[in-house]
Structures are given as C-alpha cells and as structure tokens.
Amino acid sequence: MSYDLCIADRGYSSWSLRGWLLFAAFGLTPRLTVTRLYEPGFAQTLDGFFPARTVPALRLPEGLVIAESVAIAEELATRHPEAGHWPADPKARAIARALVAEMHAGFTALRSHCPMNLRVSYSDCAPPQAVLDDLARLEVLWAWARRETGAQGPWLCGDYSAADAFFAPVAGRVAGYGLPVSDASQAYVDAHLAHGPFRRWRAMGLVDGADQPFYDRDYPRRPWPGPAPLEAEACDGPSINDACPYSGKPVTDFARINGQVIGFCNPFCRDKTVADPQAWPQAMALLQP
C-alpha cells in the first residue's frame, strides 16, 4: 500500500510537520514530494495533488487526493488501526479527538505572532495578551487531558497519539520563541524536542533549502533548547561504510561524527545527519566502539 505525501519547507511548515508525523511517528512511510512556500513552484506542485490547495496533501493508494491533516489522520487511522493514531480506550480517544479539533481550528493569535521556525530560537518575542491567552488555553487543555486520561508518560493521552502530532508544532513555537509556560507544560514541550521523529524532521529542516525571509524576526536569539547535537562536520572520505545507511546505495559524500567518517549517497543524507547525528539510528549504528 503506497502513499504520496506532499509537504513544504520542513523548517517552517507546521501543517506539513503534522502530516509527516502521522506517518513517521506511527511506523508508516510515504513517498514524499517536497515543495517550497512562497515560490511559483508551490502552486504548480499542488496542481499535481488536485483538489488540494494547501499542504499536507496525500494521494491515497487508489489515486484519490485528500488534504487537511485532520482528514489525513482519520483516514490513516481507519486504514491502519494497528498503528495507534488514536488511543484504544474510548474516553482517551474522545479526548484526543477533541484536542485535535481545537488545535486545528484555534490558536490563531499564537500562530500569527509566532509562525513556526525550527531553524532559530529567540529568548523573547514580546508576546501580546492574545498570545498569552492562547498559552493559557493550552495549559488548561494539556492538564485536562493528562488528568482525565491518567497519562503517566510524557504524552497527553497515554501513548503518543495523533493529538501529540498536532501539538508538535506548538512545542516548536514554545522552543523557538521562548514562550512562557508552566513547568508541566515545559516538560511536555521537552518531550517533543527529544522525540526521535521530531528531531529528524528538524534536522532535515535545517538543511533542506535557503532561509525563508517571511519568518525572520528581529528578536534576541539563543541556542536551540532541545538536546544538544553530537559534534559532526562534512569532510572527505574514505568512510568506514560502503553503503549509505538510509538508501543502501554507494557512498559519495562524507561526514566526520564522533571522530569517525561515515559515507552517504548524497549531500542531503550527509547534511541532515550532520545537523543532528543522534536523531538518526541508522547512522549511529555504524559508529564503532
């Protein structure tokens, strides 16, 4: 069963992140079409995903295209019930669906003042009262979900679910704009920043194209507050491996990670790994003791 998922800039497109996590965080792998926001090619690419007007857009195996991440979540959950997009418990499932619906439709002040930008982090963005009101609503929802579902781990409704995928860009906004949240909410944000699929998405977002000027803000910057990446850099070969850890193709590009040289089949494979080596288990598995 093959899916084609159209996404935009990983560093900036919050809805693309949601759509991709609905696959990557649940053991599903689509073919990707990646386009760039604010460029003529964006509309041209979406012409191939009619009738979608936005990303993410998903072509189902039988050829039908659907857009809107809520529709994608429901369709994947229907076709892959074993994947766990929704909690098995009826009460937790209802709560997760309510969270997704409100996230999809609300928090316009937060989205407007703090468009997702995973490439930078600011120490202060002077959030206006409307943004603070949105943050207060997040506090209420997240605490309510955990209390009502009895969640013991880091996620809102027990195991990681579509609700967490929908709030992942919010975690990126809190981290990126230094937004004030409670200790409990910060712990939830930190769980996202350390989550393997989120780390891989951000690593790709750091290297998959030039900066988009629309997202630049004149705020004081600080280091990204997520896990510190292992030291790595592009370099010359030879490498300790002959085949790319991702594609299995012969290596052509190289990176030094923790003192050892690993080869990759193209510059993007190399650069996404250099951006955050520990986000990529296939590459880390090659490192020799």
Automatic annotation (TrEMBL):
<dbReference type="InterPro" id="IPR036282">
    <property type="entry name" value="Glutathione-S-Trfase_C_sf"/>
</dbReference>
<dbReference type="Pfam" id="PF13409">
    <property type="entry name" value="GST_N_2"/>
</dbReference>
<feature type="domain" description="GST N-terminal">
    <location>
        <begin position="1"/>
        <end position="84"/>
    </location>
</feature>
<protein>
    <submittedName>
        <fullName>Glutathione S-transferase</fullName>
    </submittedName>
</protein>
<dbReference type="InterPro" id="IPR036249">
    <property type="entry name" value="Thioredoxin-like_sf"/>
</dbReference>
<dbReference type="InterPro" id="IPR004045">
    <property type="entry name" value="Glutathione_S-Trfase_N"/>
</dbReference>
